[in-house]
Amino acid sequence: MDKFFDRLLMLKHSRIFASVPLEDLRVVAEQLQDETYVAGEEIFCRGDIADRMYIVQSGRVMIMLDADGRHVAGTFAQGEAFGEMALFDSQARSATARVIEDAELLSLNREKLHDLLLSYPHIALGLLQGMSLRLRDANDALHAEMEKR
Fold it and tell me: Where does residue 25 rank: exposed (0-12), middle (13-18), buried (19+ CB within 10 A)?
């Protein structure tokens, strides 16, 4: 299978881009960069300047709120996106991303993402829907944790 088609499939099956029409996903796929990381490697650290978001092609990535991994915000696997939040609020990274299983990622830098969002409303809407689902999941988890107490 060719790399471009693989990217399209990955995007279409990702939660964050699932509602975006295929013709718009083609434009996104053209802008993605391949990145490879080994287990234990940090992709970014809390406090870093945010310059790109990521989509996991293979492997697993853990998002930690602290450097020692005691507070894990989530684990991301194939088709899942992370790191997009800081691209919108111009703040430093709020967490550290560490590879826990050798990973191949697709990345999209801030400038290209902003250009896509301005030019393709379906991409913007899809990204907002994906981020909203993630926020809802976080709220549900927080609510469940509060009920335990």
Answer: buried
- The domain limits of the chain are 3-148
Residue 5 vs residues 1, 2, 10, 22, 140: alpha-carbon distances, Å: 7, 6, 9, 11, 35
Decide: pTM greater than 0.85.
yes
| 3-state DSSP percent of the chain in helix, strand and coil, to 5 | 40, 30, 30
> pLDDT tens, 55-102?
999 999 999 988 777 788 889 999 999 998 878 887 889 899 999 999
Q: Judge contact between 63 and 96, C-beta under 8 A.
A: yes
CATH 2.60.120.10 fits 3-148, yes or no: yes
C-alpha dihedral (92, 96, 102, 105), degrees to nearest 10: -20
Residues in the chain: 149
